[in-house]
Amino acid sequence: MNPCGSAGGIPVKPDNAHGDAMWKWLKGSKSTSDPVRNENETLGPADTALADDRAPQPKVIVITGTSGSGRKSIAKQLSAELDLPYVLPYTTRAMRKGERDGEHYRFIAEADFQSMLDRQEFSQSVRLERGSYGIAERELSEALEQHGAAIVVVNHDGLQALRKRFGPQAIRIFLYVTKEDIRLREEREGAPPEVIEEYLRNYSEQVVFKKESDYLLQNIDPAATLAKIKNFLQDKI
Length: 237
What we know:
Layout: E1 10-11, H1 17-26, H2 45-54, E2 59-65, H3 71-82, E3 90-91, E4 106-107, H4 110-118, E5 122-128, E6 131-136, H5 137-147, E7 149-153, H6 156-166, E8 170-176, H7 179-188, H8 193-207, E9 215-218, H9 222-233
Parallel strand pairs: 2-7, 2-8, 3-4, 8-9
Antiparallel strand pairs: 1-9, 3-6, 5-6
Helix pairs in contact: 3-9, 7-8
């Protein structure tokens, strides 16, 4: 994909030279200047620091954007096609028609959410008009340990928290559609009128954050969006 975004999306911040060097090292292109070590030698402090620096870092693929833009659907499809875990959020909001616990969210009571919050069990959490949302730290950590990468869907506050923790290893993908697209999609899916109005009311506040992303996509055709994201991620995870 060229820097002008010929694949259909806009790469806001291309990878730097360090990222390219890390990828080459992971593929096995080790510098000939590296010392040859006897298998019986032990690592000194400097060697350990070098090894840690060269170790592959876990990647968190953060899908964010405007409400009603299809973020969760894209995240689930991406999870299936890349064989990477999608860390399901916990929420206290009411379950909607067609939703299932453990598939769309982990639906829990407000008191249970607060207990998890008090025990600091969330890597990030947020309170919105319709309820509280959070990503469980244990589930995120296990996904990263087992797979080296994980997919999450969060709003801007969640993105900020993950970016602060993981730095550039939190890969930010921003999805958006027009307000009219949101209305049509949500009506087609049977969303309550108050939810649709909330999405439209918050649209302007959410869309301004599109510049704070590594890849920006208008999710008009979900199949095309998925293909473009996979292409964008191919040399990053």
